[in-house]
Write a structure and sequence with these properties.
Layout: H1 2-13, E1 24-25, E2 31-32, E3 41-42, H2 43-59, H3 64-67, H4 73-85, E4 92-94, H5 98-112, E5 118-122, H6 127-139, E6 144-148, H7 150-156, E7 161-167, H8 179-188, E8 192-196, H9 208-211, E9 215-218, E10 233-236, H10 280-291, H11 298-319, E11 324-325, E12 337-341, H12 345-354, E13 357-358, E14 360-362, E15 366-370, H13 378-394
Parallel strand pairs: 2-13, 5-6, 5-7, 7-8, 8-9
Antiparallel strand pairs: 1-3, 4-10, 9-10, 11-12, 12-15, 14-15
Helix pairs in contact: 1-13, 2-10, 4-10, 5-6, 11-13
Bound molecules: pyridoxal-5'-phosphate.
Pyridoxal-5'-phosphate binds near residues 97 and 196.
Amino acid sequence: MTTDLTHARDLDIKDPLAPMRARFHLPEKLIYLDGNSLGPLPIATVARQKDMVARQWGEGLIRSWNDADWIDAPARIGRKIARLIGAKPHEVLVTDSVSVNIFKLVVASAQLSPKRPQILSEAGNFHTDLHIASGAAEVMPNLRLDVLERADLLDAFGPETNTALLTHVHYKTAERFDMAAVTARATDAGARIVWDLSHSVGAVPLHLNQAGAELAVGCGYKYLNGGPGAPAFLYVAEHLQERLVSPLRGWFGHARPFAFEDSYEPAPGIARWQAGTPPMLSMDALESGVESFDGIDMDSVWAKSVTLFDLFHRLVAKYCPALTCVSPLEPAARGSHISFRFDHAFELCQALIDRGVIGDFRAPDIIRFGLTPLYLSHEDIVRAVVAMAKILDSELWHDPRFSQRGRVT
Ligand SMILES: *Cc1c(COP(=O)(O)O)cnc(C)c1O
């Protein structure tokens, strides 16, 4: 333990991202390994929200749509996210939730190839993705959803395939698709992919343009630290922008929203993907969350994720042999969390939270830890694993109070 701590502190001294922790409010004595589910509060967000409420809303009232440039927020924040995902500034828009954006993009993409009946997705994908895809397939004539195991997916792309909905980094195991290779496979078959970047953006280096990606969605409240229920974003590659139209034709996506016309004409470019009025308080918190990446390049974030993962994995193998790692050990094959299988994962997770280490449980038997390089240290990892080892060695998780489940697990 002492040598592990010394080693970790040594890594922390050399860590170029260590000063970034000061950008976040983190409760004292808490080790937060759940930033892949809900990112922490950026300190800058507190003053910004106050200004947003008291001055921009309170004093500015409706004038703020122009005076505080609320109206440009969806595109402006999109431009900032574009840098993090390797997209052009005008290819990204902040709007709606991940679920809603999946619906919009899957339906619009499917409409582009009406003779192709197959929507593809992966068994065990995040459930909202499968639910939304099944609903999209049902409202479209002649469309069906095929859900396949990962091992069978690549071979399934064929002349019937219309659109595949794939999650780039798996929410449970952290397995990562090779975006360029899978996109090439889809393109060869004449199909398109909607990539879900919920567990990728702000965590792994992304090069959407370079990979040939055409459509994507991503989450604002996980690694982007945009706050609970933050709006999501979507990406539409430039060459598709004038060919796709959102099935949710709200006035904010109209070419002239303030002309109040009866007939719909989509706005040029990415703006057509807005449906209704953006939630400005949440937009502002998201903008602040995205700005917590200002001046930071994603390669350095990823380099630290790798050392955090390696340390976590090595210490668990040494001190917690009852846990089985289900995340890929090869860095290029995974995202930025580490997951373990354990029959009593729920109870273990609760016992850890009781000791000030927050990870999360994913049914039925996975305990998952988010490795977020902006505010975690290597020392945090040692302390978390040692706490977990103590709980396992003493079988503290048996305590009945750790088996009570809330509505959110
Ligand atoms: C977190 C997550 C979502 C969230 O969807 P919401 O509409 O924001 O609730 C969707 N898909 C994946 C893969 C996720 O990890």
